[in-house]
Amino acid sequence: MSAHSLVHYLAAIDLVIDFGTIALWAVEIKRSTAPTIAKGFHIACEDLKPTQKYAVYGGNERFPMSGGIQIISLAEMMLEIGH
């Protein structure tokens, strides 16, 4: 994916991690311990079609949210990236 095409999505997605042909992750970063996901994130994900969708938040538990989004702590996100 070119840098130019990513600019459009970064207005709604905080972080896009492109693992080449392996995977494409969309990451929303939330400070709250009760995260909510903005409509723009969902719309951008419909266009981008990431293989994984995450919301990194200030809590410690991992749980699913609607739209296939995994709510995850920063520490666990770092472990996911390391795999």
User: Helical residue percent?
Assistant: 25-40%
H/E element sequence: HEEHEEEH
Number of helices, counting only DSSP H or I runs of 4 residues or more: 3
How many separate domains?
1
Report the average pLDDT across residues: 88
Number of strands: 5
Spans of 5+ residues with little confidence (pLDDT < 50)? none
Secondary-structure-derived class: alpha/beta
Distance between the termini: 22 Å
> How much β-strand is present in the residues?
25-35%
Q: Main beta sheet: strand number and arrangement? A: 5 strands, mixed
Strand numbers in spatial order across the main sheet: 1-2-3-5-4
Radius of gyration: 12 Å
Any chance you could write out the topology, listing elements then pairs?
Blueprint: H1 3-10, E1 15-18, E2 24-29, H2 39-48, E3 52-57, E4 63-65, E5 69-73, H3 74-82
Parallel strand pairs: 2-3, 3-5
Antiparallel strand pairs: 1-2, 4-5
What does this structure look like?
The protein has 83 residues and is α/β, with parallel strands linked by helices. The protein has one domain (3-82). The protein contains 3 helices and 5 strands; from the N terminus they run H-E-E-H-E-E-E-H. The chain has helices spanning 3-10, 39-48, 74-82; strands at 15-18, 24-29, 52-57, 63-65, 69-73. A 5-stranded mixed beta sheet has the order 1-2-3-5-4. Strand 1 (15-18) and strand 2 form a beta hairpin.
